[in-house]
Structure formats: structure tokens, C-alpha cells
Amino acid sequence: MTEENRTTWQQDMRVRSFRILGTFAPLLIASFFLSSMVPHNEGEKEILIRPWGDAVLVKGRVDIPRRTSEEIQTVFVLEGPLPPPVIDLFNVRVKSLDGNFDSKKRWKFKAIKATKSSWSAVFPLRVPSGQTLAYRLKTEKASAELAAANLHIIIDPRRSADKFFRIGEMFFYPSLALCIFGVAMLLFAKFST
Fold first, then answer.
1. Which residue ranges make up each domain of the chain?
2. Is 53 helix (H, G, I), strand (E, B) or coil?
3. Beta partners for 119?
4. Confidence of residue 37 (pLDDT cuts 50, 70, 90)
5. What confidence tens digit (pLDDT) does each residue in 68-122 have?
6. Beta strands of 30-187 (E only): which ranges?
7. Of the candidates 25, 57, 191, 61, which has an alpha carbon nearest to the alpha carbon of residue 135?
8. Can you tell me the distance from the alpha carbon of 13 to that of 182, in angstroms, rounded to the nearest whole number?
9. Left if phi > 0, otherwise alpha if psi is -120 to 50, otherwise beta: which for 130?
């Protein structure tokens, strides 16, 4: 390869690497910004429930993080070993400590088989954000011989714009890889002899 061909090749390589960097570096920055706006699940809480013979299965408090001024989706998930309990209804009461929110619902209990040895049941509820909530799950009657179960409280704030943010998050790693490739091309063109 002659010196003139090598110089032309290096210039072409530099031009291509700058085109790659000029295209994908802004995409990398934008996708990083959008992915930082996606709310990540930070509110999962697990509580061991007393044996099923007790009328009040579980009561306690949970802190709901402040995301927005609107209500957010919260999911109460009961899990336990097979066989599932024979319960028709749960009385679920969730209220805020300052008295702004008070929800009393009857949950028609329906356990589904989650794995070979366990079951689960889900109760969704919309609650206000940025508050401490007191909750109580109570049964009217249940068989006392069944083992205790676990309650998971999952706080999952979803907004309508989250889909847009997640699409931006998808472009982060491909644009990062292409930016690294562009820098490698630039360095290779500079230091090749």
C-alpha cells in the first residue's frame, strides 16, 4: 500500500468514525436521559403472615414514595405453600395516616397455582403517592391447619409517558456499542502505520 493510498484510507476511516459518532452520540445521551426518568420498582415489601386460623391475617404500614401528585398502582400479592386456603372473601382496608385516603374493599379470593409447590393471589389497588398507608387484611373464616403465607406489597408507579421512556431506554446499549465502535475506528485510523 502506497503512502497516498494509506492517507486516503485513514481519511475515509476518520470520516466514517465521525459520522458514526455524530449519529449515535446524541442518541446515547438522549437514551441515557430517558432511561434515568423510568421509575424503577423500589417498593416491594415482604411480610410473613400469621397462621390462617387468625381472623386478622396481617396489618401494618407501608411508605408510598412520592412520584407524582396522582394515584399509583399498588399490588398486594399473597403467596404460600400448596394447598391453598379455602377462603371466599377478604376484607381489605387501606387508609392514609393523615386521613386523606380510606379504602374498604371486599376481595374475592382466588388462588392460582404459581409453581409446583406454591400458590398466589393478587389484589390490585390504586393509592395516593407520597404517604404512609396503614393496611389490614382480614378473613371472615379460614381453616386453621394451613401454614402461614407471605404478603408482597409491590408499588409500581406507571405513567402514560413511561412507554416512551422505555423505548428510549432500549436504544442505550446499541448506541453505546456503536459509539465505542466509532471511537475504535478513529483510534485505529490515527495510530495505524
1. 3-37+165-191, 45-158
2. coil
3. 80, 113
4. low
5. 667 777 778 878 777 777 776 778 888 888 888 888 888 877 778 777 888 888 8
6. 45-48, 56-63, 71-81, 89-96, 102-108, 112-113, 118-128, 132-139, 150-156
7. 61
8. 9
9. left
* Cβ neighbours of 53 (radius 10 Å): 14
User: What is the CATH T-level fold of the domain 45-158, as seen in this structure?
Assistant: Jelly Rolls (2.60.120)
Rounded to whole angstroms, the Cα distance separating 17 from 80 reads 56
Length of the chain: 193
Is 137 exposed, middle or buried (CB count within 10 Å of its CB: 0-12, 13-18, 19+)?
A: buried
d(CA 28, CA 174): 8
Confidence of residue 183 (pLDDT cuts 50, 70, 90): very high
